[in-house]
Amino acid sequence: MTQPPLRPRKTAMLVAQRIVADIHERGNTVGERLPPERVMLDEYAVGRGTLRESLRFLELQGVISLRPGPGGGPVVEQPDASSLATALTLLLQFENAPFRTIAEARTGLEPMMAQLAAERIDDESLGQLKLSVDTMYDQLDDQHVFLAENKRFHDIIAHGSGNAMFGYLVDALLGILDGSAIGIDYPKVRRTAVHKAHLRIYEAIATRDPQASSTAMAHHIEEYVKYAERKFPDILAAPITWTHLT
């Protein structure tokens, strides 16, 4: 069977890739300005429209910001997981995937993250993990603090795993499956149970026990899914849409 011809990559995308490569080659850091437009036009030998399309794409990906006015122009930024969350949300929306998809992904991924964190997390991050557990306990009556600390706890473990992909994945997954955005509520009794689970996970990681950390995290996520299935089955069955993204 004849294969369809490969689509050539757009010039704007190729230029965007060259700009990123040059950022790394020059060693530009966050907050540094890139060369002005007139220099980039000559350097990349493209028209103004193509260059601006490239820069706009990089801005949407969080690689740069475009500051207006004299002395403005493209400035290097640190990308975060928001672009990944948007891309995943759109892919899942067009697959008509339900929110349960995210819960199931966490069930598979987060125990491995906890296992790796027990082996690799540094003392500073371990201290931040303990602070998150303590802050959640001290302010259990405040659901906004609870949600913030719940996300921070899982973020610290993901990044503490030493695997950069896990860090961005958890950021993205929690950005999609955020209880405050889709309607999952956490009464005081549930918040208390989550705190106890976080404390068990922290203690396992602090003792550098990979198996206990994995087991504690697996139990925690399984309990979350059971709670959501029991109390909010319609929400988990609802299709993921971009409008829910926080």
Automatic annotation (TrEMBL):
Keywords: DNA-binding, Transcription, Transcription regulation. Residues 9-79 form the HTH gntR-type domain. InterPro entries: GntR_C, TF_FadR/GntR_C, Tscrpt_reg_HTH_GntR, WH-like_DNA-bd_sf, WH_DNA-bd_sf. It holds the Pfam family FCD. It comes from the Bacteria. SMART domains: FCD, HTH_GNTR. One of its GO terms (molecular function) is DNA-binding transcription factor activity. This is DNA-binding FadR family transcriptional regulator. It comes from Prauserella isguenensis. The lineage of its organism: Bacteria, Bacillati, Actinomycetota, Actinomycetes, Pseudonocardiales.
